[in-house]
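Practice problem: predict the structure.
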Amino acid sequence: MTPFIKQLDRAERQLTKVGTALELVRLNVSADNLDEAYQSAFELAYEAERFTLMARLLPVYTGRPDARANMESVTLNSIPISIGFTAQGWLGLHIPALLPGKEKGNSDFIRLSLYLAFREFFRNRQRPWYHDTVLIFRHRYGRNRPERQARDHDNIEVNTVADIIALFTLADDSAYLCDHFYCSAAGERDETEVYIVPRREFMKWWLESNAIAGAKFNLF
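Answer:
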């Protein structure tokens, strides 16, 4: 059995799990068990993300020399992450989704997309190397979902995002030189914002945070 067929079989088995998880969500919604539907929807997202990761590898297993580059292009466009600078000069990024939970979620799908987005953003730009900073994570929940509860901050997977940011912009992500700040807010849709702010300017960000809520940055 070739590696391509093995990977295809893995993806097919995973797709079955996606279908099972989808049906569970439907059953809970039909029974008006919204709490159960909420939890099973996260399970569906987890299984779907795993399937996406497996599917992304299939073109590479064909052995085509241009497969990886073409797949990276598809990945970069699949999650339209935007990166840029605010009017105040703070580097920020916008992810059009909430980050997954630590126990059920899988952040690998964000890891590759975020890495590729940062790589493209700094392809023709000089990287800023920050010292003594605050990484600010703002989780924005769509107002059209009032029945949903905001998750505890310590149950949200932020390490993947922090690791990629550190790789491209932080001279050192030691706890002595980099603090984390988490907050949540209502928004037009589910999304995640991250800002890299010098520690001395954190209170300025706090006072002006509403003015830059829901910011969309230009990637290129």
